[in-house]
Amino acid sequence: MTAFLRLQKTAAQAEPELVEATLSEQVLGHLTERGFVPFHPVLAERFGHRAALFIGVCLYWTKYGLKHAPQRGGWFHMSAKDMTAATTLSRHEQDTVRALMEDHGILEERLAGRPAVLHYRLNLRSLASALDVVENGETAPTLDQAWNWFQGTVTFYRPLADIGGSAASGLYLSYLLRQLQQALTREGIHGELLQVEPARVARSLCLTPKVVRTARERLKRSGLVSDVGQFQRVNLGAILACLHQQTVKPLPAARNKRGNSVRRGPPLAP
């Protein structure tokens, strides 16, 4: 709370638009340093937002592994604990997502290493089929081709899910922050106010109206967003204060067959 009061005092001493732009940059800079996950709305539309987060992590590490360890053929290891740290998904939610993807033939699993640990590999041909993507040729699509399937990718900031109380709330707030940052660069924006209807958020993230409504109510009860007429107010000061109070832990790196980290630092959207 002390940090929040200092921010309010500083805000009173400067131009509102300049202050909000600075706060927005601070918030996004802080979040980027802690790592983020690419969220692809087309995956949420087909499989739900939890599965979209899970697959987003898998796509990232598949791309990283093919670039830095091509001999592994796209296989990578990520523990349930690491996946929770990256996405908020509980072990039960991960099991549900894994079962769904296995039913579609999208996720392959095997035990490897000593001691044996679970490894994953994405089947891009099955993913293309599930998304009704038509690729020319008999060979399996490449990962570069797969990235062309995703439009409107949203940056998911895991810490926002913690302060918002759910993965959906984190997605909602991640989207609003990016929209606010863009709006602050345009003429006519006033402070923290953003004209974004919940229906637009639902369409952009491919979330159901119920999920969006629940996420929005969580954020409002937490004082992170509020309604001001036809606008939504994003409380940047409160968000920044909450982030500073969190224990800063970067998102986990994937591990090789020996259980050693193959990359330090948080995963970033390719």
Could you please describe the fold and organization of this structure?
With about 270 residues, the chain is mainly alpha-helical. It has two domains: about 1-35 and about 155-245, Orthogonal Bundle (Arc Repressor Mutant, subunit A); about 40-145, Arc Repressor Mutant, subunit A. It has 13 helices and eight strands. The chain has helices spanning about 1-10, 15-35, 40-45, 50-70, 80-85, 90-105, 125-130, 145, 160-165, 165-185, 200-205, 210-220, 235-245; strands at about 35-40, 75, 105-110, 115-120, 155, 195, 225-230, 230-235. The strands form three sheets. A three-stranded antiparallel sheet has the order 2-4-3. Strands 6-8-7 form a three-stranded antiparallel sheet. A two-stranded antiparallel ribbon has the order 1-5. The model is unreliable at about 1-20 and about 260-270 (pLDDT under 50).
**Structure annotation, total helices:** 13
The Cα radius of gyration reads 20 Å
Major beta-sheet overview: 3 strands, antiparallel
The parts where pLDDT drops under 50 for at least 5 residues are 1-18, 261-270
Q: What is the count of distinct domains?
A: 2
**Largest sheet: spatial strand order:** 2-4-3
- Cα distance spanning the termini: 36 Å
Order of helices and strands: HHEHHEHHEEHHEHHEHHEEH
Shape: globular
Which tags fit this structure?
270 residues; mainly alpha; Arc Repressor Mutant, subunit A; 2 domains; three-stranded antiparallel beta sheet; 13 helices; globular; disordered N terminus
Layout of helices and strands:
Layout: H1 2-11, H2 16-34, E1 37-39, H3 41-47, H4 49-68, E2 76-77, H5 80-87, H6 91-103, E3 107-112, E4 117-122, H7 124-130, H8 143-147, E5 154-156, H9 158-164, H10 167-184, E6 193-194, H11 198-205, H12 209-221, E7 225-228, E8 231-234, H13 236-245
Antiparallel strand pairs: 1-5, 2-4, 3-4, 6-8, 7-8
